[in-house]
Amino acid sequence: MNLTIVEYPDKRLREKSKEVNSFDETLHKLLDAMYPMMIETNGIGLAAIQVAHPVRVLILNIPDEEGNQPDENLIEIINPVVIEKDGETTYQEGCLSVPQFYEDVKRHETIKINYQDRHGNTQSLEADGLLAIAIQHEMDHLEGILFIDKLSYSRRKKFEKEYKKIQKERKGK
Ligand SMILES: CC(=O)Oc1ccc(/C=C/C(=O)NCCc2ccccc2)cc1OC(C)=O
Ligand SMILES: [Co+2]
């Protein structure tokens, strides 16, 4: 399965992702293709919609203290549901679908979710720190929401200006 990252302002990123009902070979092939793609592009989180599959699937691999992303840190999250969220934290986020742009985004500090793993078994996860931020960022993707949508008006204007320049440079290359 050959995947490419869909980049802003592509309208496909705005679709609402659909629930996964069959935990079959097709789903496993998607998960197995998303993971190397995320690692190769220096990502720590990736939602299926970012590779043009509007299904409620996301993967995360949060780097450890040395900045490595061992395979055992991979978490495959399907049909996530927020059970609890608390506190507030700000972090400079980036997104593989909005390359070379980073901005501070406010999120909940801790989050508890239920989800299904690749076999359809229900799991629950309580997270804080970067994992909590990543879960919220990726779950927004499932609703067609990007981190740039959460910027203040002035910072969004700054983004639009900057991003046009970035896109010109990248196309120019
Ligand atoms: C040039 C470029 O596009 O830079 C990047 C931007 C974003 C990313 C990855 C962003 C990412 O994984 N975001 C997941 C959501 C998230 C954001 C903030 C904190 C937790 C989770 C990787 C980039 O590639 C390189 C080479 O750094
Ligand atoms: Co993203």
From TrEMBL:
Removes the formyl group from the N-terminal Met of newly synthesized proteins. Requires at least a dipeptide for an efficient rate of reaction. N-terminal L-methionine is a prerequisite for activity but the enzyme has broad specificity at other positions. It catalyses: N-terminal N-formyl-L-methionyl-[peptide] + H2O = N-terminal L-methionyl-[peptide] + formate. PANTHER family: PEPTIDE DEFORMYLASE (PTHR10458:SF22). The active site is at 138. Belongs to the polypeptide deformylase family. It comes from the Bacteria. Fe cation binds at residues 95, 137, 141. CDD domains: Pep_deformylase. The gene is def. Its EC number is 3.5.1.88. InterPro entries: Peptide_deformylase, Peptide_deformylase_sf. Pfam families: Pep_deformylase. One of its GO terms (molecular function) is metal ion binding. This is Peptide deformylase. Binds 1 Fe(2+) ion. Keywords: Hydrolase, Iron, Metal-binding, Protein biosynthesis.
